[in-house]
Batch of 2 targets.
Target 1
Amino acid sequence: MSQTPDSAVHPAPSDAVRAHIAAHRSAFLDDLAAWLRIPSVSAQPERSGDVRRSADWLSEKLTRTGFTTVEVWETDGAPAVFAEWPSGLPDAPTVLVYGHHDVQPAAREDGWHTEPFEPTVIDGRMYGRGAADDKGQVLFHTLGVQAHLAATGRTAPAVNLKLLVEGEEESGSPHFRALVEQHADRLAADLAIVSDTGMWSETTPTVCTGMRGVADCEIDFYGPDQDIHSGSFGGAVPNPATVAGRIVAALHDDTERVAIPGFYDGVTELSEAERALIAELPFDEAAWLTTAKSHGTLGEAGHSTLERVWARPTAEVNGIGGGYQGPGGKTIVPASAHLKLSFRLVAGQDPAHIETAVRGWLAGLVPAGIRYEIAFGAPTRPCLTPLDHPALKAVAGAMSRAFDGAKVRYTREGGSGPAADLQDVLGAPVLFLGISVPSDGWHAPNEKIELDLLMKGVETTAYLWSDLPAALRADAPGA
Amino acid sequence: MSQTPDSAVHPAPSDAVRAHIAAHRSAFLDDLAAWLRIPSVSAQPERSGDVRRSADWLSEKLTRTGFTTVEVWETDGAPAVFAEWPSGLPDAPTVLVYGHHDVQPAAREDGWHTEPFEPTVIDGRMYGRGAADDKGQVLFHTLGVQAHLAATGRTAPAVNLKLLVEGEEESGSPHFRALVEQHADRLAADLAIVSDTGMWSETTPTVCTGMRGVADCEIDFYGPDQDIHSGSFGGAVPNPATVAGRIVAALHDDTERVAIPGFYDGVTELSEAERALIAELPFDEAAWLTTAKSHGTLGEAGHSTLERVWARPTAEVNGIGGGYQGPGGKTIVPASAHLKLSFRLVAGQDPAHIETAVRGWLAGLVPAGIRYEIAFGAPTRPCLTPLDHPALKAVAGAMSRAFDGAKVRYTREGGSGPAADLQDVLGAPVLFLGISVPSDGWHAPNEKIELDLLMKGVETTAYLWSDLPAALRADAPGA
Ligand SMILES: [Zn+2]
Ligand SMILES: [Zn+2]
């Protein structure tokens, strides 16, 4: 095979990819273990040195992998790592891979059977904090691009490959949007691939196609200037805690649909085809409820549980408080009450429009004699890749090859994340490529990664970088 | 005048009553000041010795006044004082006067212009903690019965006079009901007179005819076993904070009437005559709102503010809590939420029936997947004396004489108090005789009593003990 770049992109043969992976699996896992030993817990200030060590370790590893540019990017918080490896091909698409190198806190006494920062392989699984979320899933890209090169005989990937690995995801990515905005030109891409999610199960490979957005607000209701006696005044003055309750009750109608006028404006409804695909998934509601630690389902009429958490917007009460909350009773009309609400948003919903809708709805419900204040946090937009997007088809195809021809299905993620910032700032569609499974224990004791699945991730990317240029070209206008 | 008891009860002439009061006013006020110097704050454990000193001081004063039996009654908390002065007349009615000798906490730095426990007379007012609530209003009964004797020439009152002065009213009377039950035979009376309320204003003498009762409950709602992620699960599982809000909203209908089925069962409605009497009162709603520290009125449709707080039952949210209440936001479906509700009750409502109604109503509203617990506290019954009760007419008549023939009007008290225990245990109607005015500053800095009004209280009782036997006899069956 030629060792010089050429302008034709050849497919990566499976046997060559698999041979490369097999040859390098052991060294790769040693690297992963080394990285997992660095307790890069972004939420613990005393670990900030470890977060930096983690960034430095990753930089060294990416350089060793072959990335031509590797930089540690400072933020007002923990550092991120950026790496770039140009294709050399004039018409190569540019792909930006996103992940994070910080991890959740972990301590042996939380219920770990092994030391959380001493990775341990047992029965084909590597246990350790960050194994799945997200170091394992960042790292498979290093062996993946090398397998891609080995199998295609190229010296640079067939796509312009960029990596952005942030260091504060587990702390809510407080500086991520600013970072992306600051480096928007360096990060420019045709496509973003987020490797920080998972698949349906070990036996059902899936690609996530979108995340919900979120808008949140805090509402403070003020009634009497101080708590007043409910005997002397109760029944004749408005009670802010009662008003808060009424606002909560007014969030939904009798069908559990959000009752705020305008809330559903622009919502991208699920097509019948998408609903059918979701319905085909082997969903075990009882098992899901166990995971949800909940004792019943309740949601928007006319939608299944999966549709509700993946594709439907919500209004949720995150917190409520007012009046006396100590032991026993206190016969007062409280001076104030407070609500924390959040709204999950789906594709087509505009957070600014939601804010306007909520403000207008609220203004019409608060009675005279109650003053209120409402403040919104910074929203996260929803993101969604259409099922017929060529990149999505390429990802699913590559994954199917890695999974021996298994049918790849589509999921969504109910949560919200920094992926939306990439979509917003870069104007690029976002795909989600993850091989973690629900049993991996994200944010829980005994987090692990299935090593065979990890290699499927490696393999998927090895194929993907080969397949993507043609897939995107085929779909280009005029193609 | 005869100095021996006789069996005919003569009216107490005004000039004789007033002459006696004038002659003893100064010594009486010295006594009141001495009592006010004892900081009998029942809510402060370090003052328990002072509360006992206060009981002892009162015992000595009552003995000096002429009461034939004076006892300090122990409770599981602070001591009460009981005193008795039999009439000697075979058919004399028995009257039990209720008051309390404990006071609210007070400290100079709370905004007092004088030392709270160093009573100070300025411009005809005595300032000091307890001046109006309730030492002044207990003590006027001592000079009152002496004026009654002096003006009628009797050596014992024309009624069998009993006094019960508790020491924990400002701490919620936790042992009062047990005390009344324990001594029910000693306390037996045809009538209870509570001197622990006030009048409408300096220029509008009034008699309070009833208090609302109160039933309270705490409701805990449990959803997920722990706070769960609102992105992963929100929109598909029931949220206990949302349920708490819906329960709050369901408390009332659109007319602010309590919407719990059966809640109004048995309610003694205001007659048109009573409504007219209330409407005649010189009510300044703006001033009332200032007192209520509220910024608007809201209550049951079809009723005025005074009707709402005096004569209508209510459902009030005293406290609500659930989920995240700290700074910022947290996107969770909370594990639990909690409500503290209280219901003011009016005559005709039975607390046990209310509890049953609330439990049934709640059970029908909580969705599957939410577990709840509800617990009721000990209720306080409402009490109400009919406007045509002869004792009420006697009290109003005596008060009118003391106020130079002014028309005495009727009020009610929206709060709830130990008066209901007297009514329940003793089976006696309860009347309220108080001469305090709204500006007296109960529970606030610079509490005071108007000395001229205090003397009107003395004078009212001097007449009342003379008038009551005939008034009750006239109304007795067969009279
Ligand atoms: Zn992650
Ligand atoms: Zn009092």
Target 2
Amino acid sequence: MTDLPISAELLAENNKAGEAALANDYASLGEQLDRRGIDIDAITRKVASFSVAIPSWGVGTGGTRFARFAGPGEPRGIFEKLDDCAVINQLTRSTPTVSLHNPWDKADPAALKAKGDQLGLGFDAMNSNTFSDAKDQALSYKFGSLSHADVAVRQQAIEHNIETIEIGKVLGSKALTVWVGDGSNFPGQSNFTRAFEHYLDAMKTVYAALPDDWRVFTEHKLYEPAFYSTVVQDWGTNYLIAKELGPKAFCLVDLGHHAPNVNIEMIVARLIQFEKLAGFHFNDSKYGDDDLDAGSINPFQLFLIFNELVDADHRKAPGFNPAYMIDQSHNVTDPIESLMASAIEILRAYAQALLVDRPVLAAFQDSNDALMANQTLKRAFTTDVGPIIAKARLAKGGAIDPIGTYRASGYRARVTEQRPSSGGSSSGIV
Amino acid sequence: MTDLPISAELLAENNKAGEAALANDYASLGEQLDRRGIDIDAITRKVASFSVAIPSWGVGTGGTRFARFAGPGEPRGIFEKLDDCAVINQLTRSTPTVSLHNPWDKADPAALKAKGDQLGLGFDAMNSNTFSDAKDQALSYKFGSLSHADVAVRQQAIEHNIETIEIGKVLGSKALTVWVGDGSNFPGQSNFTRAFEHYLDAMKTVYAALPDDWRVFTEHKLYEPAFYSTVVQDWGTNYLIAKELGPKAFCLVDLGHHAPNVNIEMIVARLIQFEKLAGFHFNDSKYGDDDLDAGSINPFQLFLIFNELVDADHRKAPGFNPAYMIDQSHNVTDPIESLMASAIEILRAYAQALLVDRPVLAAFQDSNDALMANQTLKRAFTTDVGPIIAKARLAKGGAIDPIGTYRASGYRARVTEQRPSSGGSSSGIV
Amino acid sequence: MTDLPISAELLAENNKAGEAALANDYASLGEQLDRRGIDIDAITRKVASFSVAIPSWGVGTGGTRFARFAGPGEPRGIFEKLDDCAVINQLTRSTPTVSLHNPWDKADPAALKAKGDQLGLGFDAMNSNTFSDAKDQALSYKFGSLSHADVAVRQQAIEHNIETIEIGKVLGSKALTVWVGDGSNFPGQSNFTRAFEHYLDAMKTVYAALPDDWRVFTEHKLYEPAFYSTVVQDWGTNYLIAKELGPKAFCLVDLGHHAPNVNIEMIVARLIQFEKLAGFHFNDSKYGDDDLDAGSINPFQLFLIFNELVDADHRKAPGFNPAYMIDQSHNVTDPIESLMASAIEILRAYAQALLVDRPVLAAFQDSNDALMANQTLKRAFTTDVGPIIAKARLAKGGAIDPIGTYRASGYRARVTEQRPSSGGSSSGIV
Amino acid sequence: MTDLPISAELLAENNKAGEAALANDYASLGEQLDRRGIDIDAITRKVASFSVAIPSWGVGTGGTRFARFAGPGEPRGIFEKLDDCAVINQLTRSTPTVSLHNPWDKADPAALKAKGDQLGLGFDAMNSNTFSDAKDQALSYKFGSLSHADVAVRQQAIEHNIETIEIGKVLGSKALTVWVGDGSNFPGQSNFTRAFEHYLDAMKTVYAALPDDWRVFTEHKLYEPAFYSTVVQDWGTNYLIAKELGPKAFCLVDLGHHAPNVNIEMIVARLIQFEKLAGFHFNDSKYGDDDLDAGSINPFQLFLIFNELVDADHRKAPGFNPAYMIDQSHNVTDPIESLMASAIEILRAYAQALLVDRPVLAAFQDSNDALMANQTLKRAFTTDVGPIIAKARLAKGGAIDPIGTYRASGYRARVTEQRPSSGGSSSGIV
């Protein structure tokens, strides 16, 4: 039996308050969609079957190089993080898995698994960390990890990744996500070719350690923490990695890791076409890798990405099997609230994309009717799919109004008492 | 009596087909908004009172430096352009004015005015052109116009602007829009300071020629046609111009004329605060000054801009009186269709912004509740305001479905017969 | 015997005036380099052996979508273009080949070859054009060419490319360069996957028509003339193309075709490593694809690119055999002058890169001495290699001061008389 | 008597080794410049008179939000920071002042002054810090400081700035630099107009506390730590601030705080023209506010900025009196080395700009000879001015080879023993 953090009574009570309005709005929307030839219940069922993972680190307050302003009741370890993740899933019913970060989330795997079972949470892709130095680590990653000039450092990073796989095996994970901060801050500091050779060699050893039913996801990032070059700078390099490694290697798309103006939905289409899309790290950004809440800055872009995903699903693109995770930094909000809101935005984009009339769109495309092709997408995007998402949530036992219910529950105040602050609210680096 | 291009019968017939569905959707939305404390009819009335100007050049097919692919039935002169503008206004009922371009639209002012009256069209801001050389022009603008190193060229450009004011006076226009292509392609080519001094001096002479009830709008542009520097490169320089010229000078915001990532809505807020916002040239872009259809790439940004405008109106910001115009380049669509679709997108953003609960938003802002402040905006944006805009259009005699009605009318085929192509479909420059 | 456009006497006279100073500067630099362990004459010989192609269209004046301001004495056809190219090569002795553009440069191949022989010019890669419509072309490329939804248009574009190969065979060219303007202006207009499938299918047919000793170069471009998506948008897609086509297919790097901030030298390194670098289209840019003169905006970036090329040459990278061409748009200068200046800037970057002490650099890289690795590059870059380039030019019969000699020759005034202007100075599109 | 950290004997010995080569190179360059009509000694004197301040925080190792990798021998407080600054100035003789940061550098002002006198260091602009929370601070800056919605937080930030002025008065500083991290991460979080009103009101109080002979410098930044909007986002807003505050208020230009592609040298020209340029925070960047070493990524841009400064000086622009400081984050190098290298790059750009033949440049500009105007700048930039800078350094008692001499001195090893590490090498935030 799962034991969830928010009281069932409170949830029921809050849902009761919103049920009539939801029923009304859902009926009106259903009628409208029916006129457009769309069965609202079929859409709702699809939305209900969609889920996105929460990264364990997401429930802590983030920061910048200038400062970190701690929030109240921050989780002090992986077990408390799981509690917070359980709140998110209980209320949104769309985030049933958690993605762990080695070494931060190290704990007795059996205890972790038991805690997950108790909260109704599973474990998603495992994340290694070679972009910072762990306590008592023998060699530093200051100048790189899997691509370091020194073979001993590369070996240490390889072993860390293999250890991460081992932990994941116990927890039932089926994928390893590798992101490295390797790169350079000065022209000349790094030999691009040698560094990439080192990286590929090291990753081949990690790849060889993957169980048969695992996949490895590599992640590109244009810059930061390295500021002149990064070893895996874009999807082109990421594709080369996946190709060199083999059929279990795939390319992750983090929405914030691209150059300005880049057409991300097109990258998604290319990776699907060449059967190398691993999945997503969802977030949003305005300037760089801002790690803002998914859908908060450019919701139409999120929709266009889902338009590619739904299209691939619709035409049964070979090898299409993306993994979804939120990856944000919450500096000014309660992370639980931000993650719930983001999960909803992701479902919104998915629901909107499901409304696109694909045969009609294809016909406009084939006849070069650019305006009507665009209108076809816009009609789906401008539809208020809120009732569909709420209905899907409700049907699965979640909240009609997750944020309102969460606030009403007093969860944050409760954990703030239970989790005394570690002290210093500011740990910026200047 | 106006004499409109689309048959009233056809319009009525097409509207009839959509009326029941619209009534239904409007009623449902009204009920939902009522629950949110919003009177839908008040919103509809505000939307109905909003209008945006069409630039005369917008109804022609655009092109790039690589090629121009002519469309069928392109207008061959200002009178045919006015016919096309009349279609847009007849069906959308939100574009009652046209903005002319001197010297391209030169014609007998009385005949122009009569034509406008016949079509129910007025004349908006007048645009001068010193970024290309007109036939038989004495001196070339190859190296600049109002900022040219040679005083004779500057004088010619000044006189052209004054002539543009003179034409506008007859037509009932009340504003002059000045955009120059002046700048440089090489570091060193231009002395930034001297060029700007020349520009300011020249503009002071133009300013002195403005009638008392006129305003002058200057427009900044980061780059293109000049590719290393432009004389009026950003809103900072544009503000300095307006400040130097005087109380009748204001700064135009063209959505495509900014550096990547720039927060345009914040620029709008600053210009409102310092009482120097002239208004807008609406379009959208993904990369540079792409001149794509308004709202087609980043509709949330358009909404955020309107959020500032509605906020300024709401708090009765001193001197707030923006002029609205669409300014796009239609390369792959029928310009009439694109302009109708864009006018609708602009109204959509306006309607969405009207739904924002401003006292609630202010309270969230004052209590640093970032998440709920954002949700307040998002709730307005995700509302499907289509029924409001359609109802406003219908109430004023327009079409429920402007594009469908236009296509049904056969207008394009008709004018294609009447307006034989001038020949060469391709006039790219390589 | 070649018959060159600039008088040998004038050239000799101009060189005489500069010889003493050059000898002095060369000797001083030689002494300094000797102290740094570098043999100046070895560098000079390498510089003397470097060449870069001129595109036939480069000697005409460029323009923008706003206007084109014609220059005096513009060449009216391919034979006059070759005359202008001969001036550039005569004075710089580094541009012995011309790259033609089909269909603009269509002419009797035998006559072209004879003219080239007479001027001492060879023919480089052939360029097809499917981004604009040629006169009397059956089907339009308005909505694409090799990726068009209609198979008939794709077939026409294939045939045009095959025709281009045929012309090149006669002229002694060994490569076809394919750049398409295909893409979309609206989300939804194009199905990314289908369009790319069409493109790949079409290119496979073109590829099959390549003679055994030919290569095909494909060129990516982030945007323009398409403004929402382009079919070959970045090096990732370009790499996929080269991989799909086969061993004769390679990826061109045009310096202006990337997203803002992108690290181009790293892309160059990747393409070298995976043996798919075709070569370069040199130019410079500040904002978008500005097509400014090579080295005029960011000369350090040009140096960093050559640093990769010299490094690849130094370590004898397998399959390393890049083709070099200048590809610029000259809107405000005499194209002959700009092309001469650009050829010199390219040689400058090459000469600077040759000065990098590679074993020392590698040692700093291996020991993570980021500062000294950077200083090693900077020392090469800050060296004034002007005397080396001038000496290399002089040794091959060129001018110490190409631009001064060109101006002294009166060539432009002479051809201005011979080539009456076609009339309209302005052909902008608005 | 000053007591400098590097032994005079070692310095003399190292200089001796390089003197002959320097004399040779200086003489050759002198001869070349003489041919170009330039007196090398006059240039050297100007270079020798130029100085740039070091920020106290610059001598510590920087980090990113992901990690900080401590370097050996990091200074543990302001007195050790001053020691490190003294090394930089002793060897480069171009950084005689230090800019302090309140509250980090709080100490007995008399002791600070004595320490500065002992090391031959003065105190430059004072920096306040309201972008992170100091220990035991009453109210948090999590949601802003001078623009905070709560008047009590604003008051606290005002008082902190006034305190910073008070400290500076004792130390002989004459300027206060104000940079705030205020802004928002979500659309809607902040009301742009109210926030800016708050900021202006607060700054007016700070301004009123300035001594008569002080100036206040405000600094704009496009983004980070706030990621959707910042209160002082660009030079346009910064100019408005300086204008609103009064004649003692000026605008700082940090090279990394602009949108991609922005023409920074033009902003410098505008601020000079309108008499509001405060000065610079020098650094370089490739992607965002990367805070890389000055001149390491785009040295030509640095030159173009100095071209504006030298031009303003040359024409005696009214009110022209810029303050210069380096502001970088050193993550992978020894900060002392990076700061010495950066000071040299800044002097290099200044020396190159001094070589521009300004009357000749003006003539090319006036005759629209874009190519020769550009060549005039490029000729100055491609000159190897290394000997001039080294000679200027040597003449003032510094090192011909500052980095080589520093390494030979064993300073870092010495202080590493004296300054035991505080422990944790990694303090990243995820």
